[in-house]
């Protein structure tokens, strides 16, 4: 396997992670000495949709790599650029986020510098723990609360009801003080970010149908319980973010009730009423309990997202002090037919959050291809599945074919797979897993990619453990902790809970089982891998190079000047040889897993193990030459040539 030129958006290759408009940034390219001879290197940007070129200079060589430096001046808030390489034989190649190409590439897949305000520094180090409050823990006070009229009471040990109305109304009574009482569990795992699904009053167990945004649901303990929870979490070094529905409210919401059937009400413009009587309206996917917001309304913007008196601002300020928001259905927010106000809404959200507390995080739910919305102008990242979660399932699952009931009572045997009507979970090789990661990350700026959530599952999905192939849980958890992005643990995963779909995954936490052998083993796995993530900064901010990809295994490094972390993940038996010069492994330190690393006589690295396996080593940091004095803007003559290199080669770049 051949080593390839490499660049990414990490500090090893980009002189600043927080550029401003007009700033000239130095970007670096490393080229294997065996790849040349390369006679000219430059960058091609596209400011204002007009190409701009810079010429790179050789900075020097180190450990078998030639380094090139080039200036890129940030002329747009998202400034894309790619590398252009000319060989001695006249061939021209282009390097972008999807790899090395022999033909010109798309602007959408360029590397990108983002000049918008950066995310909080703590985000890169975050390991998120997601809690669905009704199913996490009950405090003593919960027993004394009256069950609401919409709820179907359940005992903590009752099975989850997959059918309506129980699907949305089965009520276990978990509350915020219950979560506070279990914070030592989170601290023991090592997580440092708590994500709460909605806490506002509603008429469902999931609370995505809010009846108000002005106070916390009394069933959860009210405002004071949230204050207690956030304060106790902060005392343990755990930040807390909430969940807002910017696409819709519930049909019991005070704003909607003021406008429903009342033409001329001040709130009628908050929604899309379709008749003169204000009785018919657009809703989320036709669900009448979730009427859709109309973000053309300035008054809605004032009340909800704009300024220091808005809903968004209120919960970030004292006495609540939330550390950010996850925005539900962010992909559909502000969008309806020929209307698209999404960019305005996300930018206003972020502007308000910066005004109130710039050290807060804003992430979006966008569960499919989120590329167009994730360019750094609003969302710091997203809960998105195609760049990690879905391909991970497709590679590491072994569906059982066990029957289960859908929401309407239909029995099915094909496994649930993120709502895709494709007959179950597809079967991917490790190579296809890597290809999917590259494809769906290829259009997202590096800085934003680091904010993308990387769950194995969530409250909206089945649980990965349900169909995980034998021995692959450590592989899946390990990849979540070591690939670029924000690791996510959905409460219960650390106990090994199953769940065939998004409702059945909302199982009450099995407190009291921690000492059972299988549970204790799973808990130890999570503690070890979270500790690994937290102890090695390269896993938070380091660049990433794929070193080996075949049908059964992937190997990659996360690297900084201070350390290199080598990762091997395989579903089956693996014997992989990393080419000489790929890494310097003579002083490799085993951090995790049971695999063999040997250095060959030619300097190559041999990795072998019986799979499934997840293994990690710590190597020396990258020895890069000092930055060169970069030239002024130029327009090099880098003429295209005949195709010679397969486009998008994922291996060893």
Keywords:
alpha/beta, 18% helix, 24% strand, globular, disordered C terminus
Give a short summary of the structure.
With 653 residues, the chain is α/β, with parallel strands linked by helices.
How large is the radius of gyration?
26 Å
Percent of sequence in beta strands: 15-25%
- What low-confidence regions span 5 or more consecutive residues with pLDDT below 50? 634-651
The counted number of beta strands is 31
Q: Give a short account of the largest sheet.
A: 8 strands, parallel
Number of helices: 14
3D shape = globular
Mean pLDDT: 95
What percent of the residues sit in helical stretches (DSSP H or I)? Answer: 10-25%
Describe the secondary structure blueprint for this structure.
Elements: E1 24-32, E2 38-45, E3 52-55, E4 57-62, E5 65-73, E6 78-87, E7 92-96, E8 99-101, E9 111-114, E10 128-131, E11 152-153, H1 166-169, E12 170-171, H2 176-180, H3 183-189, E13 193-196, H4 222-235, E14 239-245, H5 254-259, H6 298-304, H7 311-314, E15 324-328, E16 335-336, E17 339-340, H8 342-356, E18 361-365, E19 381-383, H9 389-396, E20 404-405, E21 411-412, H10 430-441, H11 446-449, E22 453-455, H12 473-482, E23 486-490, H13 517-535, H14 538-541, E24 543-549, E25 553-559, E26 563-570, E27 574-578, E28 589-592, E29 596-599, E30 605-609, E31 613-620
Parallel strand pairs: 10-13, 10-23, 11-12, 13-14, 14-15, 15-18, 18-19, 22-23
Antiparallel strand pairs: 1-5, 2-3, 2-6, 4-5, 6-7, 6-9, 7-8, 16-17, 20-21, 24-25, 25-26, 26-31, 27-30, 28-31, 29-30
Helix pairs in contact: 9-10, 12-13
């Amino acid at each position: 396997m051949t080593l390839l030129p490499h660049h990414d958006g990490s500090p090893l290759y980009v002189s600043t992670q927080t550029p401003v408009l007009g700033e000239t940034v130095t970007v670096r390219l490393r080229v294997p000495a065996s790849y040349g001879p390369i006679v000219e290197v430059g960058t091609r940007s596209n400011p204002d949709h007009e190409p701009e070129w810079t010429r790179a200079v050789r900075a020097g060589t180190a450990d078998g790599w030639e380094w090139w430096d080039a200036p890129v001046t940030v002329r747009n808030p998202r400034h894309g650029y790619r590398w252009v390489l000319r060989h001695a034989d006249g061939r021209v190649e282009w390097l972008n986020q999807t790899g090395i190409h022999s033909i010109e590439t798309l602007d959408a897949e360029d590397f990108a510098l983002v000049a918008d305000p950066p995310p909080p520094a703590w985000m890169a180090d975050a390991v998120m723990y997601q809690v669905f409050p009704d199913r996490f823990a009950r405090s003593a006070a919960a027993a004394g609360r009256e069950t609401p009229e919409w709820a179907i009471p359940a005992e903590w040990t009752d099975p989850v009801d997959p059918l309506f109305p129980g699907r949305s109304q089965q009520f276990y009574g978990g509350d915020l003080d219950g979560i506070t009482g279990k914070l030592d569990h989170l601290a023991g795992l090592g997580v440092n970010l708590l994500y709460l699904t909605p806490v506002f009053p509603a008429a469902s167990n999931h609370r995505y149908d809010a009846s108000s945004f002005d106070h916390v649901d009394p069933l959860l303990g009210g405002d004071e319980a949230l204050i207690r929870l956030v304060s106790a979490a902060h005392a343990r070094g755990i930040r807390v973010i909430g969940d807002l529905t910017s696409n819709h409210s519930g049909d019991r919401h005070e704003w909607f009730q003021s406008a429903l059937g009342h033409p001329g009400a001040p709130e009628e413009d908050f929604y899309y009423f379709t008749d003169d009587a204000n009785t018919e309206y657009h809703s989320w996917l036709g669900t009448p309990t979730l009427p859709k917001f109309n973000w053309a309304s300035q008054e809605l913007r004032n009340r909800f997202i704009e300024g220091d008196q808005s809903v968004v601002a209120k919960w970030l300020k004292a006495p609540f002090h939330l550390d950010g928001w996850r925005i539900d259905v962010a992909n559909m927010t502000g969008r309806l037919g020929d209307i698209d106000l999404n960019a305005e809404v996300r930018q206003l959200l972020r502007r308000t959050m910066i005004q109130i507390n710039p050290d807060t995080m804003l992430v979006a739910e966008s569960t499919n291809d989120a590329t167009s919305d994730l360019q750094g102008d609003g969302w710091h990242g997203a809960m998105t599945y195609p760049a990690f979660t879905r391909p991970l399932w497709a590679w590491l699952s072994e569906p059982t074919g066990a029957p289960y009931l859908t929401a309407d009572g239909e029995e099915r045997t094909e496994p649930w797979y993120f709502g895709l009507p494709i007959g179950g979970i597809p079967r991917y090789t490790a190579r296809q897993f890597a290809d999917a990661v590259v494809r769906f990350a290829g259009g997202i700026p590096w800085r934003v990619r680091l904010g993308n959530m990387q769950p194995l599952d969530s409250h909206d999905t089945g649980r990965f453990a349900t169909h995980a192939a034998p021995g692959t849980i450590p592989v899946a958890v390990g990849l979540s902790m070591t690939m670029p992005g924000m690791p996510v643990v959905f409460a219960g995963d650390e106990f090994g809970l199953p769940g065939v779909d998004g409702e059945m995954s909302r199982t009450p936490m099995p407190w009291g089982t921690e000492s059972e052998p299988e549970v204790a083993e799973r808990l130890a796995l999570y503690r070890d891998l979270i500790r690994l993530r937290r102890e090695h900064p390269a896993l938070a901010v380091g660049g990433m190079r794929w070193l080996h990809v075949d049908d059964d295994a992937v190997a990659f490094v996360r690297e900084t000047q201070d350390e290199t972390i080598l990762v091997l993940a395989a579903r089956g038996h693996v014997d992989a040889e990393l080419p000489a010069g790929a890494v310097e492994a003579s002083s490799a330190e085993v951090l995790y897993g049971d695999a063999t690393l040997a250095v060959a006589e030619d300097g190559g690295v041999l990795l072998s193990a019986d799979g499934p396996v997840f293994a990690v080593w710590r190597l020396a940091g990258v020895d890069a030459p000092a930055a060169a004095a970069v030239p002024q803007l130029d327009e090099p003559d880098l003429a295209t040539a005949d195709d010679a290199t397969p486009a998008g080669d994922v291996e060893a770049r």
